[in-house]
Amino acid sequence: MDNPKPEKFLLRIYFSNGRTQRIQRTNKARLSAFMQRVNFSKVAKCHLRVTYSYMIDCFNKKIEPVNEGIYTNKKDLFYALQTFTEK
How confident is the model at residue 4 (pLDDT cuts 50, 70, 90)? Predict the structure, then answer.
């Protein structure tokens, strides 16, 4: 079975003042460029969710694989993005 390719990237940024920002992209480069512009000194945590293309499991059902996690610093967030999208 081939590895499914990433299709959607969802990033939720929770700021320390209670504000929340939600970004959804289909291109890894555009999401990465946005993440570089975020001032992480004001960020409490980030929730990254990568959704992959549909695939058929062993029970012949259509599933949509997902990887997600919550990160508190920029280094971990970029490492997770790299890990979730490697082939």
Answer: confident
Look at residue 1 and tell me if it is in a domain. Answer: no
Residue 44 domain flag: yes
φ, ψ of residue 22 in degrees (nearest 5): -120, 125
Residue span of the structural domain in which 18 resides: 6-85
Number of domain units in the chain: 1
In this structure, how many other beta carbons lie within 10 angstroms of the beta carbon of residue 81? 21
Residue 13 CA to its chain's centroid (Å): 11
pLDDT tens, 7-58?
899 999 999 999 999 999 999 999 999 999 988 999 999 999 999 988 888 8
Phi/psi at 53 (5° precision)? -65, 155
In contact, 6 and 84? CB cutoff 8 Å:
yes
